Every structure is written in C-alpha cells, then in structure tokens.
Amino acid sequence: MSDDFIRPEMSDDDSYELDSSLIERVLAVVRLDDTLGLTALLKPLHAADVADLLEQIGASSRRKLLALWGAGMDGDVLSELDEGLREEVIHALEPATLAYAIRDLESDDVVDLLEDLEAPQRDAILQALGDRDRVAVEHSLNYPSESAGRLMQREVVAGPEHWTVGEAIDYIRQDPELPEQFYHMILVDPMMRPVGYVTLGKLLGSARNVKLKALCEESFRTIPATQPEADVAYAFNQYHLISAPVVDDSGRLVGVITIDDAMIVLDEEHEEDIMRLAGAGDGSISDRLWETAKQRFPWLAVNLCTAILASRVIVQFESTISQLVVLAALMPIIASMGGNAGTQSLTVTVRALATKDLTSRNMWRVIRREALVGLVNGLLFAAALGAFGFFWYGSAALGAVLAVAIVINLFVAGFVGVGAPVILDKMGVDPALASGTFVMTVTDMVGFFAFLGLATLVLV
Amino acid sequence: MSDDFIRPEMSDDDSYELDSSLIERVLAVVRLDDTLGLTALLKPLHAADVADLLEQIGASSRRKLLALWGAGMDGDVLSELDEGLREEVIHALEPATLAYAIRDLESDDVVDLLEDLEAPQRDAILQALGDRDRVAVEHSLNYPSESAGRLMQREVVAGPEHWTVGEAIDYIRQDPELPEQFYHMILVDPMMRPVGYVTLGKLLGSARNVKLKALCEESFRTIPATQPEADVAYAFNQYHLISAPVVDDSGRLVGVITIDDAMIVLDEEHEEDIMRLAGAGDGSISDRLWETAKQRFPWLAVNLCTAILASRVIVQFESTISQLVVLAALMPIIASMGGNAGTQSLTVTVRALATKDLTSRNMWRVIRREALVGLVNGLLFAAALGAFGFFWYGSAALGAVLAVAIVINLFVAGFVGVGAPVILDKMGVDPALASGTFVMTVTDMVGFFAFLGLATLVLV
C-alpha cells in the first residue's frame, strides 16, 4: 500500500503524465518478446494509465504488445481506451481473450463498450457474458443512446422510508451483493418510488433508533431514465449531487447514477463542444491518419463553399480594386477583425446555452448587449484604423472608409455571433456545430461589402 | 420530501432550465415590494437556481430584489454566483447581512468567495468570521492560488491503519463534528501519513472484526497540497477518484478533496480553454457591457496587428494584382482554408495537451501526422480548386496556382497547428491562450504569399 507513495510511474515535473522511461522499458521488453517482464511492468499501473500507454506508442509496437500481453488484458483498460483505438484493440484480441477480459466489468461499463461497436463484435461480446449479465446489458441497451438509462448502474441500495438507522445498517450488513461503490441509501415508498436518500456518513454517525427520514439530504433529485446524459451531467454539476436515483415513466426506481460517471459525461460534452466549434469532428490524436482527414474534410468543404461565396462579393468590386489596388491589401483586415469578434460572441453564447444561463427570457437582452459590445470595440478600432489609413497611406478618406467599415462589421459580428447559435438551438441543431461557418461567412461578406462598397462611393 | 417530485421550478420541455413563469412571479412580487411573497418563492429553490435567477433578471430588478430579500440571502447563493455578478451582489449587501450570510458556509467555500474579492471586501468578510473559522480560512489562503490546498476541506475522517471495522464505526459514532459530506475513512500511519482508505460502503457491509487494511481501495492516491487544481481535477477524472487525501511536503494528512469540488474545477478549466481559444477572456453573459468590451479588446488588438502584417504580404504583390484583379477575389479563399485547417489541428492539440495524451514522447509522431492530414486534405481540395479555376475562370494555369497554393497552405496549417501549442506549452505559456493568433497569422501570410507568389511566376 505504501508503495503508492512513490508512484514510480509518475514523472516529477509533469504530474500524472506517463513517465517516458517507463514507456521505454515497456517497448524494450516488447522487443524482447518478454511476456513476464511486460506483465511485471503493466500490472502495477492503473487501467487508465495502461490505456494512455497504448495510445502513446506506435501502431506496430501496439500490435506486438497486444499479441504478447493479450491474455492479461483487463476489461477496465478497454473501457479507458479512446474510442478510435478501442475498436482496433478489440479486433486485435482473440475472441476468447476478449470474453475473459470483459467478464470482470460492471454491466454499465459493458454497455458503454458495446455502444460504439459494430453489430458482429457486439454480438460476440454479448455471447461471452453470463445469462444474467446479458439480460441486464440488453435491458440497458433498450434505453435511448446517451440517456440516463444507459449511464446508470442497475445495482442499488434502497430501503423503505419508515426504516431506522439500525434496520438500514443490518440490511446492508446482510446483503451479499452490494455494489462496488455506493454513497447513499435510497428511501422508497411502497410503490418503489424514491422519496429521499441518506448519506452513508449520516448512517454511520447516527444512533440506531434514529428514523432515516430525519437524516434525508436536502439536495435529493431523481433522474428520468430517458433524460439525455448531457442533462444528467448538468444536474450533477448544478446541484452538487454525488449520486442520484434513476426512475422510469411511473416514477419507480430502476437504477442509480454516481458522480464519477456524470463527470466523465461532462468531460465528453466539453470535448464535443470544443471540437465542434473548431470543426474538428470527434477527432483525437490517436485516430488514424485517414480517419482524421475524413472527419475534418466536411467542415473544410463547407468553408470552401462559403469562402467562394465571399469571394463573389469581392468580384463585384473588381473595377474599384483595379483603380486602387491597396484596397485588396486592406480588405482582409476588416474581414478578419469581424471574424474574430464574431467568434468571441459565438463562443460565449454556445457556452451560455450549454450552462442554461441563456434562455428565451434574457435572449434579447444578451443579443443587444453583444451587438453593443461589438459597437464599442468597433468605435475603438475605428479610431485606430482611421489613424492608420491617414498616417500610413496619407489619405483621410481611406482612413474614414476603414473606420466606418470596421464599426459596421464588428456590430454585425456581435449580432450574428449571438443570434446564429440561439436560432440553431431553437431549431434543435447543436449550436456548436454549425454556427462558426455561418458567423465567419456573414462577417467576411459584410466586411468585404462594407469596405469595398464605401471605397467605391468615396474613393474612386 | 415528496414535493421534490413535482419540482415546480422546472419547465417541462427544457430540463433544469429555470421556469420563466417563476421568474415572472418573482419580478411581480419585487415590483409590489412584497418581501414575504418573495421569500415564499425563493426559499424552496436550490441556491444554484437562485443564483441563476439573479443572473437572468435585469440589473435594476436585481438591485430591488436584493434590497427586499438581502436579509434572507444565503452564503451558498453567493458561492454559486458568476464571479462578475458576485462582486456586484456583495457590494449591494449591508455588511451585517453579508456577515450573517457567510456564517453558515464551510471554510473551503469561504476561501473560494474570498479569492476573487478586493482587499477591503476580503477583510470585511474575514472580520465577520469567528476566530476559529478565520484562522482556518487564513491558513488555506496561505497555499498558492488555484492549488489543492485552497480546494481541500480541512475536516477529515481518519484513523490508524491497524484499526478494525468495529473500532472505526465506534469512532465515527462518537465524533460530534463529522464533515457535512464524507465518503471514505482515511487510514494513516503513526506519522499521520495516509496509507490507504476504505469506502463507507465497505465499512457498513463488513463484519466488526475485519481489519480495515483488508478493505482498502486499489485506486488510492494522495494529492500534494501545492498541486495545481487543474492537475487535481485531471487525477479525479483519470483515476475515477471520489475523494482523495491532501498531504503537506512531509506527506502528512492536511485535508481532503471530494469529487464534487474536482468536477467544478474540471468545468472551469474547460470554460477557460474554450474562452481562451476564442480570445473571449473570462467572459460570461452576465458581465457588464464595458467589462466585456475591455476583456475582448486585447485579442482584437493583437489580431489587428497580425492582420496588418498579413496585409503587408499582399502589398508586395500589388503590381501582380493590378494586372489580374481576380487574384484579389481568390486569395482570401486560400487564406481562409488554411485558417480553418490550422484551427482544427490547434484545437485537437490543445485538448490532447490538457488530457496529457500528447507528451514529448509522441510529439513528433503527432506533428508528422497533423502535417500529413493537412497534406491529404490539401490534395483533395487542390483537385476541387483546380477544377474551379479551370471551369469558372477558364484558365488551367489559374487552377494550377490555386491547387498548389492550397496544398502548401494546408500542409503548413497542420504543421503550425500542432507545433505552435506544443512549443508554447514547453515554454510554460497556456497553449489555448496564444496559439490561435499565431496559427492564423502564419496561415494568412503563407496563404497570400504562396498564392500571389505563384501567380506572379506563372500568370503575369
């Protein structure tokens, strides 16, 4: 136990980063086909660290490592692997090894593994499970994908609401099949509907004759089994829940979700938002080259179309540009400033929608505020660009055109930066996914049109 | 208790979003100066929902509400408020009200409140605390900002490693000052160094004569008090910890961090990343107009400088553009595609650095991979743009220039998209903060230079 202090697998300067000398030693024993040495190195590691190690070594070393160590492969390692790599690893394992590895997993972890697999692999794993586990897993898979029903564990510790502390403790003592982790005892009415819960700390700290009802937590909330997992994560984060009972349509207890699962979902939701805002798909650095190129292609293709659209605006002003070529050098400045300001508003808005801070109620106030922020910064940069035009190019008229164009574009950027994600959200489209393109297209087109249009009126 | 089922404050269609009819009712009683009615509406709400309500109503309604309800203000509501608004609310409260509100808070929540306040407000709150609490809070404030020492609660449940289940339960029963929430009993050696911990579930489910050591969790890890809170959140997420003992330099137990606090930090770290990637500061929609404009100004100013830099590249090719004005319309396409591809690589890289999946070990492999992804997509779009140039403008030479320029720019975008954040990270700068500008500047300049340079060689 005290060995844990030394944490040999951790490097000193960068906490929790896998020690690269450990990785070197693993690669060395793999090269020597030394199964025993490999097991000695991997066994002390947490499953999450083994998964990270598999993600960090090259594909050919990984294949060799799996061939050597496959039989020692733990189901937990599979659970921790990046989805892209997980399929590769599952393919690389013998069916018997795979069946052995997953037999130790809790049913909710098996569900999580199965969700992302193709049908043949899925069936192979289901066949490997015992009858009881298979039924439990299949039952969970009946709930909608990414719902509370898939996230929950089916093992619960519950008792009638009229019990005392002593009755509860005796019950827990006698239960031979307690879940691996539990933090509350759930109180249910005679219809099996949860009515509150008591922390184990309170159970342990109270006298045997105290009624459980008197110890109930204030922050109790039930989660419908069909609730999207993103909302589950939100509820845990908003109300500081540690675990929450899951109920079916009639309010009956069907399972429990614990905060560690909610934390994983919160992390995944964030990853999805940040990747979608950048148009980077579900990408991770362990995906294969072609997979990554394919994921990013669609957003680039959309961007090509909108960039061509914006270039059509410029084409309308070709004669202006041919008379004053410097306009061609200056117009990207106006467009780029608009794109940046739009991205700022957009990101704040996408985040506020995710945290439910932006609602129909305060929508107009927020839109007005963002447009005004754009206007304020527009006026500040108008002064800067006006001066730039005057002193660098010696033309007050050019300075004025730059100044007015930047005010218009930053104002529009603020307006569409918040408006586009709000409208997409109302339409049921993920605002992180599609707003970016729209905002950039608008700020490019408005930027080019305002600047070249004003220049045509004033300068030529 | 069963009232919780109805959850009157929740709207049906959008889970956990504040019901707007509730907000209307609150505003109505505020208009009527009806303190009793206001208290009746606010009292059943969770502190986090009251905070959301304060964030969603206008500034003048908020001032009126606080004047009416101030005395009922709960310290938990202050903890839940957005930082920007928190200062406003604290200013609006009478010193006596404020002192009363925070008296109920746990010491780690007081520390969290104090961290972001100016010195005079900070001292006012410290004075309001009892002697014991003030010493505890001041002790925590001695740890570095955003460290484990600030995050931990000082109340721990610990016992000697040689204890049995029975001894542990008797000890917990007799302790009059148990923490509000605890999930483990920490085992310590005679020097007060943690050597393992036992879940309360195992304590409850085991016979009295079982040794605690036999029930220890495998996933046990200690956290140094000076560890940055971002690393703490990472450890909880990576190793699925529920609570973790915090130790000082000599390995002695000084406090404990629970997963709910780690989840809040994880959420904040994500928010910081996504906002910094967009150059939106620490922005939230409840910040004031001027505050927001000021937060976004620096990034826009940097962007203005780099945009002017990129425009200087274009100026070098003025004579080429004046001979073939269509180049002015096409050059933003190349720059924009590069900017997008660079942002994709950059975002995946920033995320991989945050999750410690990208290390010195696999750095070169990842850089090569991203550059190759850029190359692959570059070749695909080269075909598209080549065709566009040929069929739309009837010029094979123009198509070829577009094609070669896009290959060069997407290759460079992949390379700097991963290279820039990696280098910044090595230099100790947050890669989310500064990489975006750098990548966009490089892809703009390379895009303009490659396209206009090739055009100068081939077309004019």
TrEMBL record, chains A, B:
Membrane topology: Multi-pass membrane protein
Major localization listed first in the record, in broad terms: membrane
Positions of the CBS domain: 216-272
PROSITE patterns: CBS
InterPro entries membership: CBS_dom, CBS_dom_sf, Mg_transptr_MgtE_intracell_dom, MgtE_N_sf, MgtE_transporter, SLC41_membr_dom, SLC41_membr_dom_sf
Subcellular locations according to the entry: Cell membrane; Membrane
GO CC entries: plasma membrane
Residues passing through the membrane, by range: 371-393, 399-424, 436-459
Record's keyword annotation contains Acetylation: no
Family: Belongs to the SLC41A transporter family.
Subunit description: Homodimer.
Name of the featured protein: Magnesium transporter MgtE
Native source species: Falsihalocynthiibacter arcticus
